[in-house]
Design a protein that fits this description.
Elements: H1 2-14, H2 19-23, H3 27-33, H4 45-56, H5 63-66, H6 69-72, H7 74-81, H8 84-97, H9 107-112, H10 118-134, H11 139-155, H12 169-185, H13 190-209, H14 216-235, H15 241-257, H16 262-275, H17 298-308, H18 310-326, H19 334-355, H20 360-366, H21 372-387, H22 407-417, H23 423-439, H24 442-453, H25 460-466, H26 468-483, H27 487-497, H28 508-516, H29 523-539, H30 544-558, H31 563-577, H32 589-603, H33 607-616, H34 624-631, H35 640-650, H36 660-671, H37 678-690, H38 696-712, H39 720-731, H40 740-758, H41 769-784, H42 791-805, H43 817-833, H44 836-852, H45 856-872, H46 874-877, H47 882-886, H48 893-908, H49 916-925, H50 931-947, H51 952-964, H52 994-1011, H53 1013-1018, H54 1022-1031, H55 1039-1061, H56 1075-1079, H57 1089-1097, H58 1104-1128, H59 1133-1146, H60 1148-1151, H61 1157-1187
Helix pairs in contact: 3-8, 4-10, 8-11, 10-11, 10-12, 11-13, 12-14, 13-15, 14-15, 15-16, 16-18, 17-18, 17-19, 18-19, 19-21, 21-22, 21-23, 22-23, 23-24, 23-27, 26-27, 27-29, 29-30, 29-31, 30-31, 31-33, 33-35, 35-37, 36-37, 36-38, 37-39, 38-39, 40-41, 41-43, 42-43, 42-44, 43-44, 43-45, 44-45, 45-48, ...
Length: 1193
């Protein structure tokens, strides 16, 4: 008996009935039994909500919670007392599932029974559903809420629910809330997850029966609830997550299966898609979905719908794609927009294969839209289409295969857009083409291969379809590289050309553009340029043009101001060195390439480039194995000089295991008197660095031979200094021989005797190598000794120099006079460096030589000697230093370059100051006819501003404008002292030099802006100062003055335009371009090193507010300034009008509320100017819109 009770209790606890028991129970009666639990009267749902809200404010752990009246309601007490209510609710659902076909049950019968109160029933259900909000952790509340809601929904499947008012919108909305409430309150609750799955299945069955056409809000809420569940479970890791996801998809699919008109079904599918768009942003977890119809991602669901309900789904997906591309109302974040583009491309491809329909024609129209956003979106979508896989279901026999794939049309669209008027569209088109070349699908890669190779025998249909676009593609890329100012456009063009440059090696335009780009201000462009030439030389190691171009680019990049660029160039050169193999293994083009490059570099006299690379080389390159490989080439005829060059450079870092081999080669050269080869100097460098590693016998033998050569004067003059140094260095490592001082004295005595005995005929001899050699040996040995040079020799040298200055001796090649003179000047300079009196006597003579000599080698040598002398005797050389400065304007480019290099050297070492004559002449060099001199002078000025005085350009700009026009009207010109103002200023004076002056002003504007943009605005303060001087009649009226004021007004106009270009926000003003900023690539903003240094040195940092205040003051006095300028000379009216117009446009926000009548006219000018552009743009848009009326964009 006890056992039977336990069994009954177990059955009751599990709320289960057997099938036979269920079959004997009447559904009608069970439903009517629910009345036992109904409240006595119906209540308004709003009042119930207010009541529940007040209850929810009480904490469930407090004593007041237990006394809540909700639990004290009579019918609620009865319900919570036992589980009979829950059992009845479950039983009803079981009966509905196993309903006897003989029993007729509908709501009309239930209500007409006279016992069932629908209002009380709804109140009953509403109360129970709301219980879950009071305490989510109460098990009884959970059971009652979910069972009441589920049973209510299931009973809606009985006929007559709507007629008998059982269907209640508010109650159904609460049920949806209950269906979704676990997302808010609980996570990973297995009980709730099972309830959700059952509820979804039940509501799916009900809504398959019940028509929702007249219940649009319920339908929308239903879809929103399903999407909310999907969002939660797509992110969830719960055990039932994947099952719940699939049930949700089944519910959505069931909405599309109802027997409705096609239009209504398509509207429902469209509504489902719109409400589920956000689900595309959730990354799929790719869980196991056994026996599932599709994957768990929302896109998989719609692709499944496309395969089942092709036409309706296709229309919706195409509508989505077109809306995404053309509707500006969509304000997605960039990352989300790109995600949707990926999904859209996936849908489009499926439509293409399954429905035989493409969006290409729409894209063609969109690419021509007047709205740049449309064109931009079109280009980005084309990129996605090129990247997405083109494989399709081979089981589907669609007559899609054509000789010309649709990727051809996509590429044609992109070809057209790289000529777009908007830079951001150009950039995206180029990026899309690059992506297609590198990572495109099979069709895309095949097409680009044909485009680059231009093989008409292979797939001529594709090439014919592309037409002229193939021919114009490379031309357009080169044009963009040459003329575009956008960094990322040029960078992307170079990235494309990496895959398409082999056929451009012989194109002179291509070569010129690549070399020009080495001076591009962008780090990214130059790095990409280096990658391009590296690829070019890798693919064409035997092509001379490729090698020459590679070397030219490296030479230019190695002198870049950015250390990162220099390091990258050095790394590229070291990469070539690493290909060096031993002579017997040098068999491929890659192995020969390093020697070819070294030879060309030496031919260009750029050995320093090789040195920099070797100095930066890592130990991985400098190994004994690599050294042995290089040594095998010093005996060959092809690469001997190049091998000695590399050995001389690496000798400091690594020593040979067999160094005496070098001594043998050296002695062979000495014995054969083979001094003139390029190898000999390189051999001496190797010996200098390896001197300690040679054997004692080798060193002794070498010292003996070199001593004999020096004693006999048999050494060529180019080798005297090197041989003397190596000889003394070698002797210092040996014992049992005379010391170096005695050796120097002995050699000095021999050389002095020979010079004194033979100097009288020195000027008459045509070639006297021995005399020149002894003169240099005397100079070298005397420099080593602490003795004054012999007075007789000094007198002889000065006598020779003065005869030339007096034209008593002719400087002619017949008697080798230039070379003799250069050696005499070098020796006198070396003596004078140690002797003040001698320096004072020599400096004026060298200055005279600079003035009178016309021989290039003599002038360059004299400049260098004065440079050396200045570093030791600065005050002595200062009075004559102007002679070097004047050589900046010599007719010879060699002389100008030499003068520039030496002046820059002295300025950077603070031996002379960057002001006055030095500064004004260096500035004039910026517009020199020679491009190299231009670059070096610009680098000199900018290097000085970086390291010494960041405000230099700012402080000297306006003064320089007056000086270049030879208009000197001030007592003191600041950085240009009056005592240094001379005829050299006339170099840029006059109308014929206006172009050069304006080019120089552009340099000033750009670099002042780069260093400190605030300083550029502060220059406008000069208008106030000039107005005061004009008012006091301090400016003389002459041609120079008129030209000076024209230039100054032009400069002020450039400053205004620069502010407009940079889109600076003055006061409240400033509009953003928007499109360029939004789509500019992952650009990393780097602070200018120049600006940082300027900031460090300027303790009183100026702000933009300071600059604005200055501009406001200028604008106040500007009308008076205009009157005074016109009074000065009427010819200045056009220049001042242009300045006024520029101010009105670029400082519109500052003059907007001005009460001065003058600025009213100015505003009208500015408005007319801007309106012209707007009208022009409007006409373009209108014409484009006419073409696109039918595009549905």
């Amino acid at each position: 008996m006890e056992q039977q009770k336990n069994v009954n209790r177990l059955r009751f606890d599990s709320f289960e009935l057997s099938d036979s028991e269920i079959s004997q129970i009447s559904l009608m009666n069970t439903i009517l039994e629910l009345q036992n639990f109904f409240p006595e009267k119906a209540e308004d749902f709003d009042k119930i909500n207010e009541f529940i809200e007040s209850v929810s404010e009480v904490e469930s752990t407090s004593d007041d919670f237990k006394k809540l009246s909700v639990y004290n309601i009579k019918f609620m007490k009865k319900i919570r007392k036992d589980m009979q209510c829950t059992e009845t609710l479950k039983l009803i659902r079981s009966l509905l599932e196993e309903k006897n076909s003989d029993e007729i049950v509908n709501w009309n019968l239930i209500v007409n029974s006279g016992k069932f109160d629908v209002s009380c029933y709804l109140t009953f259900v509403y109360y129970l559903i709301k219980l879950f909000e009071i305490d989510q952790n109460d098990k009884i509340n959970k059971d009652l809420s979910f069972n009441a809601g589920r049973t209510y929904i299931c009973l809606l499947s009985l006929p007559g629910a709507k007629t008998c008012m059982v269907w209640d919108r508010d109650l159904i909305m609460e049920y949806f809330k209950l269906l979704n409430i676990h997302v808010k309150f609980t996570s990973n609750d297995h009980y709730l997850e099972l309830q959700i799955i059952q509820m979804l299945n039940e509501i799916k069955n009900v809504f398959n029966i019940v028509c929702l056409n007249d219940q649009e809000d319920v339908q929308e809420k239903y879809i929103d609830t399903i999407c909310s569940l999907l969002e939660y479970y797509l992110r969830s890791n719960g055990h039932s997550a994947i099952e719940t996801i699939m049930v949700c998809y089944d519910n959505l699919e069931s909405l599309c299966l109802r027997p409705l008109p096609d239009h209504d079904v398509e509207n429902i599918m469209y509504l489902i898609f719109c409400r589920s768009v956000e689900l595309h942003f959730i990354t799929s977890k790719k869980r196991q979905t056994l026996k599932a119809k599709h994957g768990e991602a929302i896109s998989d669901f719609f692709l499944y719908l496309l395969s089942i309900y092709s036409i309706k789904t296709k229309n919706i997906l195409l509508k989505f794609i077109k809306s995404l591309l053309s509707n500006p109302a969509h304000k997605y974040e960039r990352e989300k927009f790109l995600k949707l583009l990926d999904v859209a491309a996936k849908y489009e491809l499926a439509i293409y294969w399954k429905c035989n329909e493409s969006i290409i024609e729409y894209l063609k129209k969109l690419s021509m839209s007047a709205d740049s956003r449309h064109r931009l979106n079109c280009v980005e979508f084309c990129q996605k289409m090129l990247l997405i896989d083109t494989m399709h279901d081979s089981s589907i026999d669609l007559n899609l295969t054509t000789e010309v794939p649709r990727e051809v049309d996509i590429i044609k669209i992109l070809f057209e857009r790289i000529n777009d008027k908007q830079d951001n569209v150009k950039l995206k088109a180029l990026t899309a083409l690059k992506a297609g070349i590198v990572n495109g699908n099979d069709f895309a890669k095949k097409i680009f291969h044909l485009v680059f190779e231009k093989s008409k025998n292979d797939n001529p249909e594709i090439l014919n379809s592309l037409g002229e676009d193939v021919e114009n593609f490379q031309h357009t890329l080169l044009s963009l590289l040459q003329y575009s100012n956008a960094t990322y456009i040029k960078k992307t063009c170079l990235e494309i050309l990496i895959h398409n440059c082999n056929n451009l090696i012989d194109n002179e335009i291509f070569i010129d553009i690549i070399i020009t780009l080495t001076d591009d201000p962008s780090y990214l462009v130059k790095i990409q340029l280096l990658e391009l030439v590296n690829m070019l030389i890798k693919n064409n190691p035997k092509n001379n043009n490729a090698i020459e171009l590679w070397i030219e680019v490296l030479i230019n990049l190695m002198r870049d101001n950015d250390n990162k660029i220099v390091d990258a160039a050095i790394k590229a050169l070291i990469g070539i060195f690493e290909k060096i193999e031993s002579f017997e293994n040098t068999v491929t083009d890659d192995h020969i390439l390093p020697w070819t490059i070294i030879k060309i570099i030496l031919t260009k006299r750029k050995r320093g480039l090789l040195k920099n690379a070797i100095d930066a080389a890592s130990n991985n390159f400098l190994t004994q194995e690599k050294l042995r490989s290089i040594e095998t080439h010093i005996f060959t005829s092809n690469h001997r000089t190049e091998a000695w060059c590399i050995l001389s450079l690496i000798a400091k870092k690594i020593k040979s295991n067999n160094p005496d081999l070098i001594i043998k080669i050296f002695l062979d050269h000495i014995t054969e008197r083979n001094y003139e080869t390029n190898d000999f100097h390189l051999i001496l460098e190797v010996i200098r660095n390896w001197i300690e590693t040679f054997s004692i016998n080798s060193r002794a033998q070498m010292a003996s031979v070199m001593t004999d050569v020096l004693k006999n004067g048999d050494c060529p003059i180019s080798m005297v200094s090197h041989l003397y140094e190596i000889c003394t260095l070698t002797r210092s490592t040996l014992n049992n021989i005379e010391d170096n001082e005695q050796f120097a004295l002995r050699i000095n005595t021999i050389a002095k005797k020979f010079v004194l005995e033979n100097f009288q005929t020195f000027h008459l001899s045509e070639i006297d190598e021995k005399m020149l050699s002894y003169i240099l040996i005397y100079c070298e040995s005397n420099t080593d000794l602490s003795l004054r040079p012999d007075k007789k020799i000094i007198d002889l040298f000065f006598d020779f120099l003065k005869k030339i200055l007096k034209n008593e001796l002719t400087v002619s090649a017949q008697y080798d006079t230039p070379r003799k003179l250069n050696i005499i000047v070098v020796c006198l300079t070396r003596f004078a460096i140690r002797d003040n009196e001698l320096a004072a006597e020599l400096a004026p003579e060298l200055a005279s030589l600079l003035r009178k000599s016309v021989v290039v080698s003599v002038i360059k040598n004299t400049i260098q000697c004065l440079n050396d002398l200045c570093k030791k005797h600065t005050s002595t050389v200062a009075p004559v230093f102007r002679e070097i400065i004047y050589k900046l304007h010599s007719k010879s480019e060699e002389i100008r370059l030499c003068a520039l290099t030496n002046i820059y050297d002295l300025v950077m070492q603070d031996f002379i100051k960057m002001k006055g004559r030095v500064l004004i002449n260096l500035l004039a060099c910026i517009v020199d006819k020679n491009e190299l001199i231009q670059l070096k002078s610009q680098a000199a000025i900018l290097s000085y501003t970086n390291d010494k005085n960041p405000n230099l350009l700012y402080t000297c700009f306006i003064e320089a404008v007056f000086l270049f026009n030879n208009f000197i009207q001030a007592d003191n010109f600041g950085v240009f002292p009056l005592d240094e103002i001379d005829q050299s200023l006339l170099l840029l004076n006059g109308d014929d030099k206006r172009g050069q002056r304006r080019e120089l002003y552009q340099f000033f504007i750009q670099n002042i802006y780069d260093l400190n943009e605030i300083h550029l605005l502060l220059l406008l303060k000069q208008i106030i100062l000039m107005k005061d001087r004009l008012d006091k009649k301090k400016y003389k009226n002459n041609v120079c003055g008129i030209n000076a004021f024209k230039d100054v007004l032009y400069v002020f106009k450039l400053i205004c335009e620069k502010q407009g270009e940079s889109k600076m926000k003055l006061n409240k003003g400033g509009e953003n371009g928007g499109a360029d900023e939004e789509y500019e690539e992952e650009q990393v903003a780097q602070t200018s090193e120049n600006a940082q240094k300027a900031g460090k040195k300027n303790k009183n940092q100026l702000t933009m507010n300071d600059a604005i205040q200055v501009v406001e003051k200028v604008l106040q006095i500007y009308p008076s300034f205009v009157k005074l300028i016109i009074e000065y000379d009427q010819s200045l009216k056009s220049s001042i009008d242009e300045l006024t117009k520029s101010i009105s446009i670029n400082f519109a926000s500052l003059i907007e509320y001005s009460k001065d009548d003058f600025w009213k006219n100015g505003k009208e000018i500015g408005e007319k100017s801007s309106n012209k552009g707007k009208k022009r743009k409007r006409r373009t848009i209108e014409s484009d819109d006419d073409d696109n009326d039918s595009d549905d964009i």
